[in-house]
Amino acid sequence: MPIKAVVFDIGGILETIPEGGDPTSRFPQMMTRWEQRLGMAPGALSEQIGGVDAGLKDAGKDGALGSCTYDEWVSEVRAATGWDSATAEAFEDDFWETYIGEPNPELMAYFIGLRPRYKTALLSNSFVGAREREQAARGFEDMTDLIVYSHEVGLAKPDPRIYALTCERLGIEPAEMIFLDDSQGHIATARAFGIHGVVFHDNAQAIREIEALLARRGA
């Protein structure tokens, strides 16, 4: 089957950190920074709010799967910490700055240039509020045909159902899709589902492997 769609992950791909990797890998440093700022013992804040939403997970809700709203998450953080509004808002801003990371202009330009020859989509394990924050910072909705966020569909990689949903919304078969992700596990399950998976290591390697698949599979 010819390739009809190219799908990218977001974190670690179109959003990176200067030293490489997924921006969310910086969350432990963010928590440490806040513990120092507030004069808390190491690990105390992480234990208090469990990273980002342990209190909600204890209640059977998960921001990554959209079983809580953004306001519920904020309320849980405030209740767990006892912070005033100013402190909580500063934490939220730091959370999203860490989450979004830095743009990858070279790969963004390549991704944008794939249209209209191919359908494109972004497929991301996300958190409530990500669409609004990333649209404001990156304009993702303007550069792709589709965005599938885990928090909006209630499914997360590597669950094969999220790949099936992405194919369904693009109107393609798995063998007609290339998927780029920096997680070996996510790519392994995508390949098992029948998708052409590419593991991201760097921009040049990713573009080279995608172009090779496009050349081999035709348009």
Question: Can you walk through the features of this model?
Answer:
- With 219 residues, the chain is of the alpha/beta class.
- The chain has 2 domains: 5-17 and 102-217, HAD superfamily/HAD-like (Rossmann fold, 3-Layer(aba) Sandwich), CATH 3.40.50.1000; 23-100.
- The chain has helices at residues 27-37, 44-49, 54-58, 70-81, 85-100, 105-113, 130-138, 150-153, 160-170, 184-193, 203-217, and strands spanning 5-8, 15-16, 102-103, 119-124, 146-149, 177-181, 196-199.
- A 5-stranded parallel beta sheet has the order 5-4-1-6-7, sandwiched between helices.
- Strand 6, helix 10 (184-193) and strand 7 form a beta-alpha-beta unit.
- The protein starts with a strand and ends with a helix.
Give keywords.
219 residues, 49% helix, 2 domains, alpha/beta, 5-stranded parallel sheet, Rossmann fold
